[in-house]
Design a protein that fits this description.
Length: about 375
Amino acid sequence: MPEIQRDLTRTVLAVLFIGGLIAVSFWVLRPFLGALIWAVMIVVATWPLLLAVQGALGGRRGLALTVMTLVLLLLLIVPFSAAIGTIVANVDAIAGWTKALSEFKVPPPPSWVAGLPVVGERATELWQEVAAQGVEALAAKAAPYTHEVTRWFVSQVGSVGAMFIQFLLTVVMSAILYARGEFAADWMLRFGARLAGVSGQAAVRLSAQAIRGVALGVVVTALVQALLGGLGLLIAGVPFAAILTAIMFMLSVAQIGAVPVLVVAVAWLYWSGATGWGTFLLAVTVVVGALDNVLRPILIKKGANLPLLLIFAGVIGGLIAFGLIGIFVGPMVLAVAYTLLSAWIEEGESSRRAPTPAVKHKGKTRTP
């Protein structure tokens, strides 16, 4: 009994020591955890692309690593440069719009507004009230909300520097993982095997498949939607097309879609009298909106053979719970949990269906 007590004490102390060591390690690495998680997601999702580039360059990993790192850097530099360049090039136009807005007079409501069911009469009264008071009274009512929005915007601008540094850390860690990808994958597989045997290794592989499936289904679909929508904006002559394209990409990744931006642009074109270009952009909006229901399921199924409802729930729930990184973490966690639970249930069913071995009892064979 004393020996059992000593063994139990030693085991408890060892577990506490290891747990404390892990907690302190996470505390030390906390400033880098966000960049590390992003780097892992990026490398896992783009590893087949790295291998393809490496094959095209004669099997030289160093050149492939350089190409992939430069591409990641361009993804940071190009959007910032385009946004800044667009704003600088349109400073005079922005100033003109500001002046025109201050002198804008709200026209009387059209006759069709009053004919709207349920809300027609109330909408006409509100429109006439705003037209009578002018833009100044409307601006005074919106001043408290404008102040809050301005304060939020300033706080977001103040964090741009920190975001830039975080992205640079992500690029550096991605380059390291690209260079040591096979070693990292082997280490994770051995860790999964040590933790849960064959099921642990399967969970590690499934995590990679889930990340790749979400990257294909969500990010590639968002990129295609943003590029098509941006091309439509550029052809239709909508100003700030580069900035609006970046906004459409972010909204598509966040599962909101590019349609809200395009609808506003279509309304602006019709309001400006460009009916032909408004109709053209409306057709582009329909095509871009339909891509969600066509392209994304195909790409997700290609990356990971998982239920689409599970992937969508993981994307939306992960986005709400963990922010932007949650679009990868959420589906990965749900996919691993779903697969492990399914394997556990199937294992129990197979054990119940297995034939019961016969046993001997007093010289006779019988089945218990």
